[in-house]
Amino acid sequence: MFELKISNLNQARHLSQYWATHTVSLLDPDFVDDGITKCPIASQDGNLRRYYFHDIEPRYKDHFLPLLGGKAVIASRQQMQEILEFTASLKSTDKLLVHCHAGMSRSTAVACAVLCQHGLTPIEAVKHVVSIRPIAMPNRHLLKLLDDLLGLDGKLVVAGTEELFMK
After folding, report:
1. Is the pLDDT of residue 67 over 80?
2. Per CATH, the architecture of 3-165 is what?
């Protein structure tokens, strides 16, 4: 199994550049590299994919519109499919970094799915993610999209939303 790290945006630049062979970068659509919080870059031999969407679920979109300047960008099935295609060929020698702004919701949902893609059960995947990122609270919308793409019949959604609270 590949090595996995989950981080927030502040930690991601260093990890992406100096540790990771593969990086999945999940950013807000309005993210600006201001020189203080810098966007991750790939290592010399690394692979990096960036996806831009807010950390919200479709059912709460209207509630968040005023906070998001009137425009909410929801993660799409196509984006999740692209992530799974990117991570499908990970080898045991690879090092995967998945990050979002806080390293709590979007990144942990994607990390759980990638672990399932590589043979872990949904419960094993969630437990592993929580062991390396105790603040994990996977985004339910992403879990649903990824669960469907992986054909897990709702098991990833259940594990990612219930397993966390059954410690």
Report:
1. no
2. Alpha-Beta Complex (3.90)
